[in-house]
Amino acid sequence: MKYLLGIDIGTSGAKIIILDEKASIKNSETIEYPVFTPKTNWAEQNPLDWKQATLTGIRKIIEKSDINPSDIKAVGLTGQMHGSVFLDKNFKVIYPAILWCDQRTTKECDEINEIIGKKRIFEITSNPVLTGFQAPKIIWLRKNKPSIYKKVRKILLPKDYIRFILTGVFATDVSDASGTSLFDVKRRKWSEEIIEKLKIPIEFLPEVFESEEITGYITKEISNITKLKEGTPVVAGAGDQAAGGIGNGIVEEGKVSITIGTSGVVFAHSEKVVVDPKGRLHTFCHAVRGKWHLMGVMLSAGGSLRWVRDTFCNEEIQQAKIKNLDTYDIMTEKGKKVPPGCEGLIFLPYLAGERCPYPDPDAKGVFFGLSLKHKKEHIIRSVIEGATFGLLDSIEIMKEIKLPLGEKYIVSGGGGKSDFWCSIMSDIFNKKITKLSNQEGPSYGAAILAGVGIGIFKDVKTACKKFIKEKDVFKPDIKNVKIYRDVYKIYRKLYSSLKNDFKLLKELS
């Protein structure tokens, strides 16, 4: 039996899975690591934590799977997008990785727009420059940490740092590079124009590949540490959302996925470059060769519910420990007691600022309509509803630009495991919501790409059609659809009403 390894460098941890040649998951292993917030709106991680978690996870999963390591024929990589890893001449990490959700670079975004021109950068990258993207972080380091910037010789995205650790090779893929504000998304290559105008040495950046291409091979040193066979191919892989698109089977037009992790993502396949002229959605290269995808990203979806858990739900956490249950299951059972619309309570999920459809690092979370009748269960349900309304914002834009969306949406991620959340999504979107037989998403997609890269699978589309199976289907309740339609009309007005106040609030904090 031949096997494939999929590695996902997530925000909360590294997830490794082993897939057999029939695309069945043999085993999985997750090693967690921390996120650091040294200042308000900053988010950093230590890339050495990713390294340790990955190497430990590979070794553990091989040991517990009881397979011959030489039967693992290829490795696929995926991970959180946009993060910046800075390496010196000895290729050592010289500054914490600045993450996708970090909001420190507002001034640098303005500077890039002034240098390149807002219209021109949109023409090249198919996206506006946003605080979470890589280019403004590079400019920030150059301006604010000049002594460190002088030492920089390579700048990598998170999964590509792990590639370097495994293979000694500097490389990235077209989907991950699309989120840097340095990449020509239509032509699928680095933009020399942007890089030259921003005075970033081109040699700082890795070579770009299509997602299934082999980029390097496991080194002897890594073989000794992990038991992976020296010379095992490592394919380019993809950013977590593109890899998740593969893992969810979103490889042809009319297919859409909803992923609810820390962030929330609406993901749609496109055969050609399609952009929202107002820049409210992302248009990136897909992990399917020669294709693209559109994506709406909100920064705090599952992250908002985690905040509720950590802030208000100590009682539920203790119950979960005693009963050996998931805390979120206890929380959602309480949320079920509240009617749709939460008796007038509406939540704006902007706890970490927002990206789509409002690229606003100053936006803040809001409970609107809070009264004495509202209890913890109202808070829980309103946060789930508010995060889902945030996803609906992106769906409405996709409809507006005439993107084919189909009759059902595939759901994945931690939030997608909740039947309660799936039923709310079905009612709010007025669409069928479908779960898949496997919920691994990005790591599964990375492993499929590895299989395509070495010829175990013919191509990505064929592999997805053959192996990705639907499981549960949730259908909308017409009564709830009407309730949510009316609530959403109010939800849509709230950001516009509060936008200027968010900026005033920033000045006071």
Per-chain topology:
Elements: E1 3-9, E2 13-20, E3 25-32, E4 44-45, H1 47-65, E5 72-79, E6 84-87, E7 93-98, H2 106-116, H3 118-125, H4 134-144, H5 146-149, E8 154-156, H6 158-167, E9 171-173, H7 174-177, E10 183-184, E11 189-190, H8 192-197, E12 207-209, E13 214-217, H9 220-226, E14 233-235, E15 238-239, H10 240-247, E16 256-260, E17 264-270, E18 282-285, E19 292-298, H11 302-312, H12 314-323, H13 327-335, E20 346-348, E21 366-368, H14 376-400, E22 408-412, H15 419-429, E23 432-436, H16 442-453, H17 460-467, E24 470-474, H18 478-508
Parallel strand pairs: 1-5, 5-15, 9-12, 16-22, 22-23
Antiparallel strand pairs: 1-2, 2-3, 4-7, 6-7, 6-8, 10-11, 13-14, 16-17, 17-19, 18-19, 20-21, 23-24
Helix pairs in contact: 1-6, 2-3, 2-4, 10-16, 11-12, 11-14, 12-13, 13-14, 14-15, 15-18
Strand content: 15-25%
Helix-residue proportion: 40-55%
Number of helices: 18
- Kindly, what is the distance between the CA atoms of the first and last residues, rounded to a whole number of angstroms? 59 Å
Q: What overall form do the CA principal axes indicate?
A: globular
Q: Order of strands across the widest beta sheet?
A: 18-19-17-16-22-23-24
**Biggest sheet architecture:** 7 strands, mixed
The pLDDT mean sits at 95
Rg (CA only): 22 Å
